[in-house]
Amino acid sequence: MSTLIKNINLLVPDGRIVSGQDVFLQNGVIMDIGVNLPQHARETIDGTGKFLSPSLPVTHAHSPMHILRGLAEDVGIEDWFNKEIFPFESKLTPEDVYWGSRLCFAELLENGVTAVADHYFFCEEIIAAARDAGIRLDLAVCTFDFNFEEMVSLTKQLVAQYRDDPLIRVRYGPHSTYLLSPDHLKQIVEMAKADGSSIHLHCSESKAEEDNSQAKYGKSHAQIIQQAGGFTLPCLLAHGLYLSEYDLKLLGKDTWVSSAMKTYMKLGMGEGTIFINHDKIHHSFGIDGGASSNTANVLEQARLFALAGKWHNKAAQFTLADLWKTLQNGHQAMFFNTGKLEKGAPADLIIWDLNQANTLPLYHPLAAILYSSDSRNIETVFVNGKILKKDGILLQDTAELQAQVLSRSNALLKRGKGEANVTF
Ligand SMILES: [Zn+2]
């Protein structure tokens, strides 16, 4: 399979633009970039006036929660978890997880996301959904104290099974230091190290949880993770909203913080220290879940982060290039080697059509993308060289997806809430 994109403007990860280039893709890889390339391909795309960039990564998601989208609105974070989400989740079926994930993956691809770091249970169903959607999945197996033995043995098996898969990777997913004991966390870190794997967990999500951690252990969440050895291996930290100056010193060279500003705004979680810490951490963006952020749109998360930050700091602190780089950073937090516009890199790419009413005039294409664009401007999406969105249309059976989601959501409402296994 080969594609030649002719005469397109490249938008590289550091925000620079290189005009009038041809890009040749073959066998899932960028084979060549240059002016007037001689190659012939099975498919040729005229890129005149358009922009080609690496795709967008998402470093924290609960994709199956798209099946719960719109179910828990206008409540604070404690009621959101304890009175709504955990009780509904206790009755989720594998089919709900599969179709919830398919819905989320469709929306991610629509929005130019080709790699997502997910954190949930019913992992086989999420993997099947990613495979069927064609998206790259970096999956953490969500593990609590109450299901510890079962989940770590499943993780071990899945890590080995998908070790060499180009599109699916599995890692350990301790839920958090508030729903998992320090001893269990330490055991997970040791297993992840022995397997050559990594971890993905929640950390420092709310002020109350940080206070509880201090009261219970005399330590912050980050201190507990550090003492378990969690920062000596690749680590995805979801949120890190209340990391202190002291906590920052504990983070490792391969620790990545994932922010989902829309969730913080919706659940009234405050901004914590994230606008102060932005420049001091390896920062990236996630989408959290459909029940908290409502959209699978990482560009929206980046935009809200920058706007809320400027508003909060009363300063134009987040430049276009800085925001674009932070958005692209997430590729480095996963293991797919994506996020590069160079020879030999995997062909996970977006063709942007910015010649539309919502983005013209194009004084600065990055401004158009970061502050004006939406999915209508994402004309074509490649994952591993394969086109999954073309001419603005998602290439999958969306009618079946919609019918399945409707029927699952009706059944879910009929079943109602169950008994939660955990408390936030
Ligand atoms: Zn989360």
Description of the structure:
- It is a single chain.
- The chain is α/β, with parallel strands linked by helices.
- The protein folds into 2 domains: 2-54 and 337-394, Urease, subunit C, domain 1 (Roll); 56-332, Metal-dependent hydrolases (TIM Barrel, Alpha-Beta Barrel), CATH 3.20.20.
- It has 14 helices and 18 strands.
- The protein has helices at 77-89, 94-110, 123-133, 148-161, 182-194, 207-217, 221-227, 245-248, 261-266, 274-277, 298-313, 320-333, 365-372, 398-415, and strands at residues 2-11, 17-26, 29-34, 43-46, 51-54, 56-62, 113-120, 136-143, 168-174, 199-203, 235-239, 255-259, 283-285, 288-289, 349-352, 378-383, 386-390, 393-394.
- Strands 1, 2, 3, 4, 5, 15, 16, 17 and 18 form a 9-stranded mixed sheet that branches. A 5-stranded parallel sheet has the order 9-8-7-6-14, sandwiched between helices. Strands 10-11-12-13 form a 4-stranded parallel sheet.
- β2 (17-26) and β3 form a beta hairpin.
- The model has no long low-confidence stretch (mean pLDDT 95).
- The structure holds zinc ion.
- The site of zinc ion has 6 residues, from β6.
